[in-house]
Amino acid sequence: MQITRTDIEQAAQIVYAAMPPTPQYCWPLLREHLGMNIWVKHENHTPVGAFKIRGGLVYFAHLARSGNMPRGVISATRGNHGQSIGFAARRYGVPATIVVPHGNSVEKNAAMRALGVELIEYGEDFQAAREYAATLALARGLHMVPSFHPLLVTGVATYSLELLRAVPDLDVVYVPIGLGSGICGMIAARDALGLNTRVVGVVSAHAPAYAESFQAGRLIEAPARTRVADGMACRVPEQDALAFMWRGVDRMVQVTDDEVEAAMRLLFACTHNVCEGAGAAALAAAAQERLRNTGRNVAVVASGGNVDREAFAAILAAPAAV
Q1: Among 228, 222, 187, which residue's Cα sits nearest to residue 315?
Q2: Helix 150-166 × helix 53-66 angle, to 10°
Q3: Is 175 in a helix, a strand, or coil?
């Protein structure tokens, strides 16, 4: 998978036809609390509240340009990818079906339905939903939109291009990993700009498949049992994503659910931003490594803000210390 600076810049023009660039801020209270210059890239500020929208827009734009726009599409998600597909499909007038596992976020499900998708609940985790979506694609003659694809990576790489151009002297950037498009996009943008910024992957300690695979140098499946970071609940990694990570990721950091919840509270207290578990995981990793980051310029990707209200209220009610 080769993604050039031109590829990302062309993708940005597609993205900016639907939304403006998102901001990156160095919040004073956050800097004071963690003792480092830390920038937050606010992908929770997109029209669907997550970075995934960028990939969906680019993927559908290329379908349209190919002249082979399908009569219907289908995909699987824990929520943010599904919103991306729903948002882009509606712009092109294409019916979309999304498969989610049982027990998925109530509010993410509602957001997808509001975008006009047919929502189907199946299986106990993302992988089961994904396999069922592939089966339905064949049975119904629908185009299966993958959860990982070079066009999706190129689309989401546009947020990394924004961040790295705005703050070119970053020493390290922490990126949460679900299936891998975000961190692969960061590597592509970093390399396209010729920067030396270290890219650190962040996974849930309760869904360690990518961390274990990265360490072993081969694909390893692992249970996904996180209670709070559903966007990182990956049981089976993508081989293509791993190949990209092995070439461009400095290291992996695992964060516990307790650390993620503490980071969600800290983000709200210091920035008044709402982040879901996966969206706060990068900050949790930076906090875990605060001594290592003393004197460094650090960035974290707030990849999404789509957390159910009742769950977030319970998290906020707990003590605020990290």
Answers
A1: 228
A2: 130
A3: strand
Q: In angstroms, rounded to a whole number, what is the distance separating the alpha carbons of residues 195 and 187?
A: 10
Helical axes 257-271 vs 277-288, angle rounded to 10°: 100
Q: Are strands 73-76 and 37-42 parallel, antiparallel or unpaired?
A: unpaired
Q: Assess contact for 278 and 267: CB atoms under 8 A.
A: no
249 and 198 Cβ atoms separated by less than 8 Å? no
- 10-residue stretch averages of pLDDT, the chain, 322 residues long: 94 98 97 95 98 97 93 93 96 96 94 96 92 96 95 98 97 97 98 97 97 97 94 94 96 98 97 97 97 94 96 90 49
Query: Is the dihedral angle over the CA atoms 296, 199, 53, 274 positive or is it negative?
Result: negative
From the options 3.40.50.1100, 1.10.1740.10, 3.40.1110.10, 3.30.70.240, give the CATH code of 5-50+150-316: 3.40.50.1100
CB atoms within 10 A of CB 153: 29
